[in-house]
Amino acid sequence: MEIPKTAAEPMLWSGWGDPARAADLPEPIRGLLADLLGVRPPETTAVRLDEVRLPAPALPGQVLDELRGVVGPGHVRCDDEARIRRTRGRSTPDLLRLRAGDGSDAPDAVVLPGSHAEVLELLRICAAHRVAVVPFGGGTSVVGGLTPVREGFAGVVALDLARLNRLVAVDTESMVAELEPGLRAPQAEELLAARGLTLGHFPQSFEYATLGGFAAARSSGQASAGYGRFDDMVVGLTAATPRGTLELGRAPKSAAGPDLRQVVLGSEGAFGVITSLRLRVRPVPAARIYEGWRFPTFAEGAAALRRLAQDGPVPTVLRLSDETETMVGLAKPGEIGGAAAEGGCLVIAGYEGEAAEAAERRDRAAEALTGLGGTCLGPGPGDAWEHGRYSAPYLRDSLLAAGATVETLETAVFWSGLPRLYDAVRLALHGALGSPLVMCHISHVYATGASLYFTVVTAQSGDPLAQWAAAKRAANEAIVAAGGTISHHHGVGRDHREAYAAEIGELGVEVLRGIKERLDPAGVLNPGVLIP
Questions:
Q1: What is the DSSP letter of 39?
Q2: R_g (Cα) of the chain, nearest Å
Q3: CA separation for the pair 479, 410 (Å, rounded)
Q4: CA–CA dist 389, 485 (Å, integer)
Q5: CA atoms of 370 and 208, how far apart (whole Å)
Q6: What is the pLDDT of residues 246-298, one digit of tens each?
Q7: 207, 299, 488, 490: most buried by Cβ count inside 10 Å?
Q8: Whole-angstrom distance, CA of residue 107 vs CA of residue 128
Q9: Sign of dihedral through CA atoms 305, 310, 313, 318?
Q10: How far apart are CA 112 and CA 515, in angstroms?
């Protein structure tokens, strides 16, 4: 077994990512937000960590003693900082509550197991004492996936999987690696790169999310057109449940009944705790080519993406920003080739692989994009996107501090329904918020359809939590009515349960509840999350 040499750094407790990268907005940008959206500085500033209000720990002493007996006293933490850092995820409502000092959803204790056997025993103890268990990876959920129902339970434990951070084995003949779920994505890539391998999974949460979180939420990375979604990479897994162990996946494909891996993938910790993942890996690409293209309209750009997704060649990265996102993202046209002056919509296309193969694929795709009305902008926009691909959440923190409400939501639909879904969500957000700035991009493409990822910016009202709740409800209703899925890669959590129930129907809900009852009879695993 190998562990990473690079330590996983703690995330900013009240925001996103590296605390050193938190920055105030420049004054000209503040002025622009005030003029365009009416954004004003908030009346109160964010509290300090030691000012967060926490409920008194509720776990009985006997339970704490039993938990310590499994993992050791040093791996059960009840201090305020440990509890605060495992409180909720990183959605805008999560951060607004934390910044206001509301730590009411904090776990009573943080437990760090070091093996599958320890996880099994911890689940047995918690089920026996009716203690809710929230599996915790990187804390990057943006759909309420880390906020359990507390009522009816003796307490809440955050099961932090950070100690399960090893590369267990690599089968280079089959190109499969076994890794533990607590590995953050950068550490997993470090371990694999030492062997010339990569997962090729680079979502915006890459710097802090864990492999277990990717699997539990069906994550999709920015290079999904080439490498596939994370659930495509999972060839096998081990999960601990209150009823015992699930060991799933013994061949690349199988006709031996329904694929039970799919029960665990996307289950968000409600059915079990993933303790090991067997993942398809690829060679580290010898070449990476990124470039930008401009299309006159979003509709024409979407048609071009559909053409490549259906007929090829398919780039490794393929993204299309609408007119508004292009305008805002190209605020410094000198840095990315001058596309802002011409308007239109920006496409980022990237090609990874062996040098000759990547170049040949790029040339064939460029011929197709040109024939479909695209204008090549060269490598500038592609390089700028690659270097800033993980920066957006940091900007959100700065905007929140300046008095703006900023949030994202995403969906997916078949190509034929994409224009209707795009219009429906935008209209719903405008109807709920007045005159917000609504941006959108297509970030994941398939032969049959694509995802839509929206970013919304508006001035904070006197009650920003209620403000966003109304907007989110309107957007969810619009997605369901327009035939889209409630989530393409963020997951269900608590925020999407109602819409998820509408998507799968009454019988589908009964099936989920049946699985939950069989694997988790006491209902202690992430209660209130996923299951309608």
A1: -
A2: 23
A3: 9
A4: 25
A5: 38
A6: 999 999 999 999 999 999 999 999 999 999 999 999 999 999 999 999 999 99
A7: 490
A8: 18
A9: positive
A10: 26
First and final C-alpha spacing in the chain: 39
Q: Could you write out the DSSP letters of every residue in 418-438? A: HHHHHHHHHHHHHHHHSS-EE
DSSP state of 50: G
HEC secondary structure over 59-87: CCHHHHHHHHHHHCHHHEECCHHHHHHCC
Bridge partners (DSSP) listed for residue 287? 353
Tokens standing for residue 206: 């890459």
> Per this entry, what is the length of the chain?
532
Enter the DSSP assignment of 415. Answer: G
Backbone angles phi, psi at 414, to 5 degrees: -70, 155
Determine how β-strand 76-77 pairs with β-strand 437-442: unpaired
Q: Chain-centre distance of CA 209, in angstroms?
A: 8
Contacts of 393 (CB under 8 A, 6+ apart): 16, 17, 90, 204, 205
> CA-CA distances (angstroms) from residue 350 to 180, 224, 289, 307, 353?
30, 11, 5, 16, 10
CB-based contact 140:205 (threshold 8 Å): yes
- In this structure, how many other beta carbons lie within 10 angstroms of the beta carbon of residue 532? 18
Secondary structure E strands in 366-487: 375-378, 404-414, 437-442, 449-459
pLDDT tens sequence across 186-209? 999 999 999 999 999 999 999 999
For residues 290 and 317, the answer to whether their CB atoms sit within 8 Å is yes
Q: Which H or E run contains 277?
A: strand 273-280
pLDDT at residue 343 in the model: 83
Tokens (6 digits) for 42: 């908030």
Give the separation between CA 277 and CA 396, rounded to whole angstroms.
32
What's 102's DSSP letter?
B
Predicted pLDDT of residue 342: 66
Q: Which residues are catalytic?
A: 453
Respond yes or no on whether the N-terminal peptide bond of residue 313 is cis (omega within 30° of 0).
yes
In 3-state terms the chain splits into helix, strand, coil percentages (rounded to 5) of 40, 20, 40
Among 220, 257, 260, 200, CA closest to 236: 260
Distances (CA, A) of 437 to 39, 57, 330, 462: 12, 42, 15, 19
DSSP state of 199: -
